[in-house]
Each structure stands twice: as structure tokens, then as C-alpha cells.
Hints:
By secondary structure, the chain is α+β, with helices and mostly antiparallel strands. It has a domain at 136-230: Fusion Protein Consisting Of Minor Coat Protein, Glycine Rich Linker, Tola, And A His Tag, Chain: A, Domain 2. The protein has seven helices and three strands; from the N terminus they run ααααααββαβ. Strands 2-1-3 form a three-stranded antiparallel sheet, with helices on one face. The N and C termini lie far apart (188 Å).
Amino acid sequence: MSMFYVNRNMIAALPSASLLVFLLFGMISSVRPLKPKYDEPIKLEMVEMPAPTPAPVSPKTEAKQEAAAPQRPQPPVPPQPPRQAPSELAHTPQPPMPASPVASPTAAPAPATPAEPVSPSKPPEPAPVAAAKPNVDGEYIARIRSYLNSIKRYPSGREASQLRPEGTVKIWFVLRRDGSLVDSGIEQSSNSTLLDEAARKTVSRATFPGFPEQFMADQETHRFSVDLQFRPAN
């Protein structure tokens, strides 16, 4: 009995709670899910519309439109000159015609200007003749001969001063293309040992120039011979 007394408030609230639960259950059961409704697709069709026919204009409407439109001024007509009678035209004086010059029968006709003679086409000028190739060989040999004669020395010493030999020595020598000396000798003696030895010394101490490009292009060495003339000083 004491337990009911203690929980009397809860027991008193049971009918109200039961009623509330019943109502809630009834409301939940009465709610139905709504199904979505979709409208059927709308079909659109393109239809060509006929062009609008203009309404016929009545004659009264045209008259009103012409009356309402501003009228353009007409251009003035130029005055026409008065026409002359045929009798007046017959007596109208005509201006005198200028007299045409009459050629004198004695005048001689002007001489016709002779036509310029047509010159025939000029023949092509001959090609210039190439200049003759210089004598490279002769120039180089003359250069060496002049060089040796410029450096030759007359023999000195007691014997040369006593004998005073005189003569020409023909000496030969072989040079390379760079001007270096290979060998030398007496080709024709002067009958003087002093002059022959002086010619050998002249060639041995000489510094020869190299061969020109066009001089003996197919040879690496070349043999020369030069006449050296010796005379004692007066």
C-alpha cells in the first residue's frame, strides 16, 4: 500500500500517457506516403504560319493618303523663243565664209625629208686578246745573274796584286725551289785559279731568291750557269 502511495503521481499520469500514445499511433498510421506525380511530357510542334495578307485599301483611303502627302513643286518651264516666219528666215543674212587659200601654181613642193638610213646591227666586238704571259724564266735568270755580278769580289792578296789576272768564269750551280744551294762547279775556266776560286766563293756566299710560282713548275731543282767577268781595279 505504501508503494502505491509513493508512486501515486505516476499512476495518476498513466491514463493520460496511454491516451497520448494512442493518439500518436493513430496519427502515424493515418499518414500515407505521397507518391510523386509527374506530368506527361509536353510535345511541341513547329507550325509555319501563313504570311499576313495586307488588307485591301479602298479608293477613299488612297485619296486621303494622296491628299495628306505634300505636293512637290514642279520646276519652271523655260520660255521658248518665238518662232520666225518662213519669209523672215529666207531674208536672214548668212555670215561670209572665209576664203580658202589657193596654192600658187609656181610654188615648188617642199622637198621630202629623206628617211634616216637604218644602220645594220653592229657585229659583236671581238674579245680582247689576253696579254702575253711575261717571260718569267728569263726574268728570274737575269735577276740571278745581276745579283751574282753585284756581290762578286775580285781576288785579293799578294799573288793577285802581282799577276792581276783578268777573264770570265762560267760557273754552274743547282738550286732548290726555295733558293737553297745544292751543288756548284766551274763549267768553263778562265785559265786563272784565282778567278775560278773567286767565282766559287761568290756562289757559296750568295743568298738566292726562291723560284717564282710559274718558273719550272714541274721541277723541284734547276741547274743554272752564269758568266762572271773579273777585271782588276785601275
